[in-house]
Amino acid sequence: MKPLQRHLFALVVALWAAAAAAHKPSDSYLTLIAPARGARLEGQWDIALRDLDFVLGLDANHDGVITWGELKSARARIADYVFSRLTLEAIGRGDRERCALELADLLVDEHVDGHYAVLRFHADCPLQPAQLAVRYQLLFEVDPTHRGLLELTAGGVEQAEVLSKDAPTATLNLSSPGRWQQFQDFVTEGVWHIFKGYDHILFLLTLLFPAVVRYSAGGWEPREHLRDAAIDVLKVVTAFTLAHSLTLTLAVVGLLHFPARWVESAIAATVLLGALNNLKPVIVHRRWVVAFGFGLVHGFGFASVLADLGLHGMNLALSLVGFNCGVELGQIAIVLGVLPLAFALRRTLLYRRAFMPAGATAIGIVATYWLLARVAGMNLG
Length: 381
Description:
disordered N terminus; 11 helices; alpha+beta; 12 strands; elongated; 2 domains
């Protein structure tokens, strides 16, 4: 096996492991409504059918389709499973009492990434809560990256939290929302979304790898100064940031909407085109224009995390700004990790003659797989 082939093979193997995970991460949407008076909370919990099928085997005949009949027959098992992984405790005047959860209705709804079981339930608390303690443990035993996106409405005021395996509990004040904590939670969610969004990472890499070299008639040649590479990266990342922030905002507030399959397919296409441009450069100058155009597409992908929460007002603003800040922090971390190393290696033949083409080829292969699978509507999880 020739050196270039060895490098290509190694890169393909390393990247292929990420391919199956390049879809919207596993989330559930938990909504709680606390009345102005009384101790009964109304709740709705949207959980992806694919997740419930994985742990409970809802597809009884194994035909790849979960029918309404199969879902209804599993109603009791679903309720037992999910409510054993959610604890609500009412806190008031020094007392702390656990609320009893009871399933009221089971429905189906469609979110941006597929069909969800909708569990409407009551939470009967022994006392009217001034604070509500939530402990969330859904799916953590099989998917430690799963997130629970919680929205609580009390007295007409909304607040949101993100619950994870590392932070499975939250205590919410029904009269005085913890806005700073909400902001922090969504910053963390934005960072996590970047690090789990392998398609976004690979697209950034297709923009970062050429920043330390320049293309001429003789092929890729090293840049002389880190400052030149840093300015190029700054233009590209700034354009990408502005673009995805714009479409993220428009999508979350409901002004623009495209089907999830279209968005995910378009994201895969941007990764593929970025890789092809590194193999056979067509756009060498003003790469920031390309980054801006493709960033508009990626913004719709980021919006899939927040759009289904249905937030409004200050609750939406805090979550949107926090999530966007987290996305930027994640991107900055990738740039700071990749750029110095790429600049140090830029003069080597390994980087210019092997890593650049081999890396672009490997990314292109993975992006092609994503594109074909997403267009065909395949489940990559």
